[in-house]
């Protein structure tokens, strides 16, 4: 089984970068190779967030 994760951020601020790094660390520690993570910047791709 593979987990598919999406992290929605608003720009690449220090908070966004921290959230991305936290997600990466959690996935690598707990899910190892059983995940696919996607980071979506809603300022660049608002249509994805609307779906």
TrEMBL record:
<dbReference type="InterPro" id="IPR039022">
    <property type="entry name" value="KaiB-like"/>
</dbReference>
<dbReference type="InterPro" id="IPR036249">
    <property type="entry name" value="Thioredoxin-like_sf"/>
</dbReference>
<protein>
    <submittedName>
        <fullName>Circadian clock protein KaiB</fullName>
    </submittedName>
</protein>
<feature type="domain" description="KaiB">
    <location>
        <begin position="6"/>
        <end position="51"/>
    </location>
</feature>
<dbReference type="GO" id="GO:0048511">
    <property type="term" value="P:rhythmic process"/>
</dbReference>
<dbReference type="InterPro" id="IPR011649">
    <property type="entry name" value="KaiB_domain"/>
</dbReference>
<dbReference type="Pfam" id="PF07689">
    <property type="entry name" value="KaiB"/>
</dbReference>
